[in-house]
Amino acid sequence: MEPKIALSIGAHPDDAEFFCAGTLALLAARGWQVHIATMTPGDCGTVQYSREEISRIRKNEAVRSAALIGAQYHCLECDDIFILYDRPTLMKVIELVRQIRPNIVFTLCEDDYMVDHTTTGKLAMTGCFCSGIVNIVTSDAKPFEATPALYYMDPVEAKDRYGKPIRPGMIVDIGETFETKIEMLSCHASQRDWLLKHHGIDEYTKAMEHLSLKRGKEAGVRYGEAFRQHLGHAYPQDNRLAAELGNLVHIL
C-alpha cells in the first residue's frame, strides 16, 4: 500500500493557504496525513514588529491554520529573501522529505514573482529527487523509495514574472473545502497590514478568492486550485492527485 501522506513546501507562512489549502483539506478529509512546511517563518513580513516577534507570531498563525485540517506545521528556519540553493539549505529539505516520507508534494513554481518562491520550488524538486539517494546521508531520516509525485502550485495572480498568463495542467474543484481555505488563510492575521503597506493589496482573503474563482471558472466549477505536475525523467508519471480525488480533478 502506498502511503497517504501529503506535504506542502512553501517559502512563507500563508503560501499553502493561498494556493493549495483547499486541496490539502480535500486530502485530509479522505484520510490523508497532511504536513505544511515553510522555508522561513516570514520574518520580513511586517512593518511594525522585530524579526523575532513577527517570526513567533507567524509560526503560531501557521500552527493554528494547519490544525484546522488536522495537519502538522514545520518551519525550516531560513531567512526571508535569503533562501539559498546551497548545500545546507538543501540538506534541510532532503531531511524534511525523508522524515515525512510523502506520496505527494506540493511546492511553489519557477514562474513566480519573487526569488524566495522560485528558489523554494527548486529546493523541493531536488529534495524529492534525492529522497532515495543512499549516499546523501541525513542525520535522523533514512532514504526511501519511490520518489514523491511533485505538483507545482499557481504563481501569484496566475501569471509569470513577465505578466504572461500561466496555463495549468489541472484544476482541482475545491468547492466543498473553500470555506475551510478561507478560515485557514484568516489565521494569518498579521499579514493584512503588511500586504496593504508593501504590495498595495487590501482584502487579504478577497485576493485569494479572486484567484480561486478564476481557476474555478476555467474548469467549469465555482472554486478551483491549479497545479502542474513535474513529469521529468525519474519522477512519477502517474497523476496520483487525480487518482485520489477522481472527478474533482479537471485535466486541461
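(the above was protein one; protein two follows)
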Amino acid sequence: METVNIHEAKTHLSRLVDRAAKGEPFIIARAGKPLVKVVAIEAPEKPASRLGFMRGAIVVPDDFDRMEQESIEAIFAGRE
C-alpha cells in the first residue's frame, strides 16, 4: 500500500482519490508517521430491476391503438 506525505496528498488529491475509488487504498503520513488510511466506500447495492414487475397483471386489448378513434377524429374535425 502506497504511503504519501500530506503535502503530496494535497497536491495530487484528485488523482489519489480516483485510484482509491478503483480499489487502491493509500496512507497519508506527516513526517513519515502514518495518520490516515484512504479507502473507497462500499457502494450501496442497486435494487433489483422492476422492469416487467406487473407482467400478466394488466391486459392491453388488441385494438388499443384504435380505441375511441371515431370520437377523437370527431373532436379534431370539430364535429363535437
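Reviewer note on protein two: The first strand starts at residue 2 and ends at 5.
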